[in-house]
Design brief:
Elements: H1 2-12, H2 16-20, H3 24-42, H4 47-75, H5 79-94
Helix pairs in contact: 1-4, 3-4
Length: 99
């Protein structure tokens, strides 16, 4: 569920999802780039430079969220697998080593 929140947050506010995922520096940079783009958009002279900044910050946030989703999918383990792994570790500590 958290990975969906991270993706949705990064789509709505670039950087917010990265912050929720624990990537503080990336999240702050993404947010600052988009905020800078919005500020440039408000000035008449810098409107053309605003669009690439906003697009870059938004895409970077999106790719960060998708990377987080893949990492979480890879790292997630089912509860059954966790129990089996814990039991195997306990059994290996109880059995004397042969050799």
């Amino acid at each position: 569920m958290k990975k969906l929140i991270v993706i949705a947050a990064n789509i709505v506010v670039p950087g917010l999802g990265s912050l929720l995922a624990g990537q503080t520096i990336r999240g702050l940079l993404q947010f600052l780039i988009v905020a800078l783009g919005v500020l440039f958009w408000m000035t008449v002279a810098l409107k053309l430079s605003a669009i690439p900044l906003v697009v870059f910050g938004w895409l970077w946030g999106l790719f960060t969220a998708l990377d987080y989703k893949q990492r979480v999918d890879f790292d997630e383990v089912s509860p059954v697998a966790m129990v089996v792994k814990q039991r195997n570790q306990r059994l290996s500590t109880l059995r004397p080593e042969r050799g």
